[in-house]
Amino acid sequence: MAVDLSTMSNAKxxxxxxxxxxxxxxxxxxxxxxxxxxxxTDRELPDVLAGDGERFYAIEAKSSxxxxxxxxxxxxxxxxxxxxxxxxxxxxxxRFDREDWYFFHPDDLYQTDGGNYRVKKETALADGxxxxxxxxxxxxxxxxxxxxxxxxxxxSDESVRRVLDxxxxxxxxxxxxxxxx
Length: 181
Fold this sequence. Notes:
The chain is α+β, with helices and mostly antiparallel strands. It folds into two domains: 5-134, Trna Endonuclease, Chain: A, domain 1; 143-180. Helices cover 44% and strands 22% of the residues. The strands form two sheets. The protein has a six-stranded mixed beta sheet, sandwiched between helices. A hairpin with a 4-residue loop joins strand 5 and strand 6. The longest helix has 22 residues, at 5-26. The radius of gyration is 24 Å and the shape is elongated.
């Protein structure tokens, strides 16, 4: 029995796009999936259009079992062109099996020597915008931002240490070191 892998892949991609549409709808966005965006028209359309009155996105959605996701340069350029003309923010939405959706502005993607784009799973998890942040329901906070006093304290300790080291080496006089501290 012959199985058309491209049909299976398209079916999974379609299912993932519908999943994204439903999540955006549940998050309060007006959302529309462009039917057969790649083949139904000569115009390049994004897979999903979504807006909530404050944020408007044109999203190219891609999914993978775990391998890196590649996008043709033309596909990304078409998304940016459409987004600019439509008044939306262009986003590449990626979903790896057993992970949530992560989003990137096209400028934040790795560009290959051939002019295409790539997203690795570990890059998505580390650097991608997660769904709650995309929809305005949370904001990413780095560890340094979460504990600014500790970071500032460590920086201050390091500055004091450098001044004392310079004093110990004889690079500074006691008065100069005291003035710096």
